[in-house]
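Example record for the data management plan.
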Amino acid sequence: DKLILLAVSLLWLCCQSSDNTAEVRPPNVLFISIDDLRPQLGCYGDSIVQTPNIDKLAARGILFENAYTQYALCGPSRASFLTGYYPRAIGINDLNVHFRENKPNAITLPQLFKENGYHSAGMYKVFHVVGFDPALFGNMDDPTSWSEPLWIPTKSAWGPVGDSIYQQSKAACLSKGPIGYGRIPRSFALEAPEISDDQLGDGEMARAAIERLRKMKDQPFFLALGFYHPHLPFVAPKKYWDLYSEEDLQLPTNQYLPKDAPPFVALNTRELRSYPDIPNEGVFTKRLKKRLLHGYLASISYVDAQVGIVLDELSRLGLEDNTIIVLLGDHGYQIGEHDHWCKKHCNFEEATKVPLILSIPQIGRQETRISSFVELVDIYPTLAQLCNLIPPADLDGKSLIPAIDRPSEMVFNTAISSYIMGGYTGTSLRTSQYRFTEWQGSIDTKYELYDHTVDPDENIN
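Corresponding structural encoding:
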């Protein structure tokens, strides 16, 4: 079975030339990462969210039903899957340390392609780069990875800069003091402005990506697109908010901490409360909770539309048959599960489970669902094998091709995630039946064990 993909790939490569003397064009890679996107997509069984473009990609690609991040925070997660190492191997567990401080000679995924003759280009939030002003909002980009400088939008994710609403909300945010995230000018958490898609950073990037594809179409390329939404704030053009009615939205039934869970797994909601339209303290009302869910769904649909613009141009340019597409969420998210809101700084299922979709034209265009448990760190060696590149020998990830060869089998049966919180280092092991988490502290060790056969929502430790 392991030889099936290799044989098909060789046949596909041979068919790329019309005669024996024509040069064989290696496959391109379009790498799409979406910030804070959990598997709340139509193709993952959600009946409310509207994601026609991602669903269309899944319908002709490979959907991993059990994919997990290695760290439920964007910076460490991205550093992990873009280097192929677990976060502990590169010493990254927050947003303040660049992976090259601990592993200066790492060869990143885009760097591997660059060093093998590809034009490697990154746009927006691929590594942890926030906002339209990286100097102000944080920049963990890696210039060594790219053939040209990282593209950064001129538009903000928080609404049109200079707009009266933006300036008003910025002032209100700053007036909140320390909880308002200091100098960072944030919009309201929930906005549905009457603006065009390209007035926000993600829409601007999608249109710039179209131009980039047109320029690169005649050379092998690795193009990485990092969409910022559905990260907070939930600012999306009004037409995407109008896709949903709050009366139809259902909040989770387990808005409480698991029974007998360590108390420090309760989430600090400071990130969400830093926005001026969110109370500094107290219990959220049911209406606010539904508004948050509404905004999250609207933001997902907004990003889905931008993904569709890029994929349509890829097809129009005739690149679809020679381009491997990867689409993923960098970590999980929550809208009320375990009374957690938004960023999931923990090791629960909603924190760690992510969408992962691959489109590999050389093995066909039929929808395939993979049941094996896989990790985002596995993407690096998988792409290297598909493109006949030699990755570093010490990567922590494994190629997913054996699982792709045998989709109905549990080829890989575990996934590992980690998180540091409350003075404890937590390592979580997910299997088909259990989630087991060990929290190591300086004084003691605590444990969580959830049986998914009887407790899929992880409500009883």
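Summary line stored alongside the record: The first strand starts at residue 28 and ends at 34.
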